[in-house]
Target: histidine kinase
Amino acid sequence: MALLHWAPQYSVQIPEIDAEHQALFGVLNDLWAATERCSDKQATADAIHRVSETMRNHLRHEESLLEEWGYPRFGEHVLEHQKLLIQLDALVASADSNDKHELEIGELNFISNWLCSHIENSDKDYARFVARKDGGGEIAKSSPSWRQRIAASVTLSRSVMAALILITMAVDITVVGLLSYGLNATRNLQEREIRATVESTALLLDHNISESVSKIDLTLHEIEDWLEHELRVKGRIEDREAKIFLDNRKSWLSGLANFRVTDEHGTILYGSGTFPSESTSISDRDHFIVHRENSRSGLFVSNPILTRIDHEWGISLSRRYNSQDGSFAGVISATVNIDYFNSLLSAARLGVNGVALLRDGDTGMITRYPASSSPSQQIGTKVFSDELAQAIASGDQARSFHTQRTGDGVERLNAYRRLSAAPFHLVVGMGTEDYLAQWHSDVTKAVVIVSAFLLLSVGSVWLLWRLFGLTKKANNSAQLVREIARSKQQLSEAHRIARLGFIELNLITGDYLLGEGTQDMLGIDPARKSGSEEDVFFNVASDDRGRLMDLLSRRSGSCFELELRIGARTLHVLGEVSRDSAAPAMVVMTLQDITDRIIAEQERAAMIERIAESDRMEALGTLAGGIAHEINTPTQYVSDNIAFMSDGISSLLDLAESVKAAKSTEGDLVAVTKNLDGLDLDFLKAELPAAAAQAQDGTLRIAKIVQAIKEFSYPSSKLPHPIDLNHLIDVVATVTRNQWKYVAELEFDLDPDLPKISAIEGEINQVLVNLLVNATHAIAELGSSSLGRIKVKTQSLGDGVELTVRDSGVGIEPENLKQIFELFFTTKAPGQGTGQGLAITKAIIHRHGGQITAESEPGSGACFRIRLPIEIPAASSEDASLS
Model:
């Protein structure tokens, strides 16, 4: 739609001047069109230059004519031209600058108003002078008749009316479209957040269950070793000792499981609830048959069973133990009550219609929270949705899906997870009705608001038509600006629909004008529409209020943003200070309540912290078996050397006794000679000190391993304090030795003058374990028969330190290099990696104010480089302390 329309009333009856005026109308309309299309900065700047060039050419030509004609008010006329040129120069300079200034309607309004007013007053004044000078009165003669003026006015009103209808339709469509897009985007965002929540909850439950299974399996291993040791050493098992041993192991696990031991026939001999007078057999149980028939059966996790001693539903985790000759001696089982799994599921916060359930490897129901009275939801039943069946059949470890038809008739968004430590299927779901309740309410409100808005738009168009019917100057640019301003007011309804606050500050008067709904955000009287700083920001935290006032006092043309705290709520403020000479100085600020988003971010951060702690404990559990092997090796040769030393010392003591006896019998050396002939003194002289040295070396090695385990498992502090990075590397290398010694050689290039850094010892240990274990896995994937190489290097950087871990493994693909630090991203097969290690590593390093980077080429290994400051920056230190 054009800004200006040429009409006969603007004619000065001088053809060449009228042609130039029409050309000016044209270039101004082109500039208006460029701003309406929201063209880029260059297109708008080009249009401004055309307006300036056309205007200057016209003014120069007009001034030369006036001087030639001898116009008496020539000086005053030129002065008016100069005022306009000053405004044009400022506009051109703004267009040529690099700032983000956008052309305002007020600037166009000033130029168009000046042009129309200048033509109708100053230009027509010199036109009358020219007409009188030429003796004609040509202007009066050629002025349009009243009938022509009415016809032009009617035509103009119809054009403006058509334009207004188009504008209103465009505004209506835009508002409806923006509202629909915003509601749809809000729903999609909400569903993404809920999907992330159920997936994180499922992952956390998987960690909790898997950690319990790992603890029980470790205890079963210990019981197996003890039983086989008793059979090997004593040839039998003492009932009392067995009962004490099993009760101790049960107490160590805080009653998590009941441990029982059977003989080779399946009769329960020892354990909780067993009595010598009663005989209970489990020879027909699946887990007993599997262990009896398979010497390498390992850990067996059963489906739900009704125990024959406690008569309660439970899950049996069992292992086989063997006799001295390696034959089957019986089964050790740990029975976990179903209620324990139900207690884990009940800890998840899933809303009124949420559900968490666990199924066994045959898809039979184990437990469900909340419990259901439906026959299809009882223990052992295999009734479930098609979507869950597809997730199980896919073989994926984790998957999310949406179900509309469920056994209890509740529509849900679910996360499925195949547990990593047990053959179970976990499903966590949140009810659609719960998390979309607010969204449905917003949709209802939006429909009502849009309906009212459309009625208001139609009524506004009708009212404008009535107003245009009463005026003959419908094409005046000021009128067009007022209509656009009215449209802006209508568009402000979109802010209210999107639950945004609106504040307009008049920098001249200092008054704040509040948009609808803003009062509730600020916690002030809903009836207040405007007020002073004290009235509007009374409840804002004093330091936030001070920052806002400081930004407003600068009065620059740039945008600003900050957060305001009001009690427990937080508002995000986005605004711009405008000091346009063509419009009143004002500040427009938009407010959005981001409290829920901040709380969600805090909860997510807390969940990641819990996952990190779980990951550390899982790593410790994974390393436990290797650590036990590392301790067992030196223990064995310490035991062997002590046995040899015992035999040698016994022989020497016999010799000493014979010497003592010979002394008492005054020279009878027969027994001495006999004992001396039976000894190899040279051999004992050489080997006994060597055996003692080897035993001492073994005990020192055991002590080093135990000290490393202690420092790794129980760091000296959970707060940042000075630590020796080289020492931590030595500790972690000792703890993880069983992981890497079979696949790689570990090389150290540690700076002996490396300064201590301020850090949390346990978290740096976790980072080192993640990097060393990842390097080991990368080398193992090569499948090479020769050992790979892992090189750990440290060096001082002046104000910090650098740690480098380089391996000769398979390397990282370029497309994966940018994603390896993302949470849950993994290239390993399902069940072999959770995608948490490097994400947690990056979070720990960033919390310490450091940086971590990865370099790799496929097939040439990978290098992880970490830089840490000697002192944690203030913000990072606070975060680390809170963690």
